[in-house]
């Protein structure tokens, strides 16, 4: 039986909801479709944000032949079959879901076919492609970042299911789905199957039901890593170990966990214990070199250490404040005294003069002079 999410999937760019920065008027993917421009790209974004749908719409609009593979189960032989397929004269487009799951050897094998134009590649990933896609392949693809769907977009997508939800049920479902349209649609479908009526109680019971199992690309994946990080943040090593064990038991990618720990070491521990970043990086390296099952011990070691460290978010919070000023004011003129002065003309213009006085008020542009991002 066809899942509800597939039944109501948009078939063209006009039906697509969200990601206006990519599909809006004069935006890159809409322009590419209108101009019939075929090129390789990677869609990077959270689950349920429209990656698969966008890929299908794009290929259909360009009248190309679409081949869909999941990097979890596909390999070199699957690529060879596509290359050898003589049943079509259309351009061949490979949509590779979870492209970050392709190892280096598999990506190296794919590279020449993308280089010589035998295949146009569309990759989809929830992970930063800079970490998981080899540089030569990444350099031949444009990366488009998809955002979590807004509440307005989610409301519109949920209305397409044909089921009417009361205001409180709709609000709860949107909050639970956290921008994941597929998760919201699946929740509606499963609630109807289990209970027939969509009430708040039935939605909550469905969420707790074993009907929804751990999915490394779905809601439980993000719920569990979120619980793990929040346990570290709250200095709760027992809870951190529990959620770590759940992820390992479910077959979660250990590098995914280790990478979040490296981020956490700077974001939440920061200046209070600078060695936390060293430990987190060593855990990541151990995961890379040792692998499962033994690297679970390294992850546990790191998790307990990070959970018991003192926390200090000043560096992270300061960066966020500075980023706000950069976006608000743009590239403000840098004070002359701290500019580089490699030529006589620049020295004559007083570039670099007075730098040795170390007056902190002279280091920021005039418009934000005295601004404090960290104390």
Sum this structure up briefly.
The chain is α/β, with parallel strands linked by helices and 375 residues long. The chain is 52% helix and 7% strand. The radius of gyration is 25 Å and the shape is globular.
Structure in words:
By secondary structure, the protein is an alpha/beta fold. The chain folds into four domains: 4-145, 3-Layer(aba) Sandwich (Rossmann fold); 151-208, Helicase, Ruva Protein, domain 3; 219-308, Zinc Finger, Delta Prime, domain 3; 331-368, no CATH class. Helix content is 52%, strand content 7%. It has 19 helices and five strands. It has a five-stranded parallel beta sheet, with helices on both faces. Strand 3, helix 6 and strand 4 (120-125) form a beta-alpha-beta unit. The model has no long low-confidence stretch (mean pLDDT 88).
Q: State the low-pLDDT regions, or none.
A: none
Helix content: 40-55%
CA-based gyration radius? 25 Å
Provide the number of structural domains: 4
Distance between the termini: 59 Å
Total helices: the number is 19
The biggest beta sheet, please? 5 strands, parallel
CATH topology value of the largest domain? Rossmann fold
Task: Assign the CATH superfamily of the largest domain.
Answer: P-loop containing nucleotide triphosphate hydrolases
Described by the principal axes of the CA atoms, the overall outline is: globular
Q: What string, H for helix and E for strand, traces the elements in order?
A: HHHEHEHEHEHHEHHHHHHHHHHH
State the assembly state of the protein chains.
Answer: single chain
Helix-strand makeup class: alpha/beta
Taking strands numbered 1, 2, ... along the chain, how are they ordered across the largest sheet? 2-3-4-1-5
Tell me the fraction of residues in β-strands, as a range: 5-15%
User: What is the level 1 CATH name of the largest domain?
Assistant: Alpha Beta
Structure summary, number of beta strands: 5
